[in-house]
């Protein structure tokens, strides 16, 4: 057993070290995951509570706004332009009474007119009262032709919080003759805002306007105050709702907001971040404690089992490998770990290193040769059709990701069959080879030239629009025209080109340039079609 004591210690040290590293990595990952999940859960709670309050407000306010809309429309059967007539005034007051009896949330319903007069049940305006200068009247005028934003205020007598909605009244010529307004109690809204959460006791709801002024809040000391800390973090109006975090004094807050554009209100639900972190930290601590204890116990058990069940078999394997390797050529010396596993490694490496290195070299050379063969045209030594398709797909992908332009060109040797028939296929092959080399030397290093098949060639030009592609095509024509081919054969080509666009695909761009190439042939050959 003494023989194996060093290996035993090494196994124990390695497994323990790996276990500690694994524990750290897992602990950090789990802590991060639990923290993220905890924040996500809290945001979900905030979002659901906020939506609940927002839905309640929408449902509470919707019949009030419909009542305002109905009362001011011709559907109500009242012509408000005749508000000075006693009969009309009686109809208006009767309509007000019906609405108050129908919609229990209505606290007051009244209408003011351009002459300063006021129509309201069970209330006599004081001497000198002028409806036109009242805030509810002016708000409706400002919001014309829409219903005014909900304007909260505190009733002088009952001290209850009410919200006012108003809309302009029009005559037959669409001239403003007055304003209809409904005031509703907000007890139900305030109660909904005041509902607490058992898991997060510091959750708080309130309503503010688009300028950051708090309108409705369970805390009576806060309405009619500004809340700039949160307002400065709320995104532009394009965001109807969302999550945000901010500092409110010494407290870090997490919040969710919802806009009610019809009212000009922003419903906010906030919570102290410390209130969220406490249960998360407790969950992380208990989870990590279990992981650490379980991991250490498993590691120690594995170390014991490995030491008992691996050392003896490894020793036998070592002796056997040494017998097999005796008499072999010596390899370059290498310093192995000073234990049985190191000796086994040295013996195995003596057998395999040379063969493995040689195989790797052969495999690398073979792979390189296969890659070249699979992507190269055997006659012209330029890219083959398969390689050109890979290049084209790569450019299409780059266009879709980065919107970088590219163009594709296809050309065909005019009357190439005559060359083969007249001079033979060997001369024809030499023409193809020289033409490929001429064009390859003419195009840019970034362009890819490939043989598409027979006497057809394709050029893919990255970062190239149609104007630049036409210049490249003209250079190709000029180079071919000025080159002296075998037996003084005059070689011309017909070429089609297109710039790739969002409407194209890999297949459609090829079809398009092929069609243009054939149009060039039909138009007389030796020309470019764009």
TrEMBL record:
GO terms for cellular component: plasma membrane. It is found in: Cell membrane. The chain crosses the membrane at residues 12-35, 287-306. Its cofactor is Mg(2+). Keywords: Cell membrane, Membrane, Transmembrane, Transmembrane helix. It is an enzyme of class 2 (transferase). Residues 404-530 form the GGDEF domain. One of its GO terms (molecular function) is diguanylate cyclase activity. Its EC number is 2.7.7.65. GO terms for biological process: cell adhesion involved in single-species biofilm formation; negative regulation of bacterial-type flagellum-dependent cell motility. It is a multi-pass membrane protein. It holds the Pfam family GGDEF. It catalyses: 2 GTP = 3',3'-c-di-GMP + 2 diphosphate. This is diguanylate cyclase. The lineage of its organism: Bacteria, Pseudomonadati, Pseudomonadota, Gammaproteobacteria, Oceanospirillales.
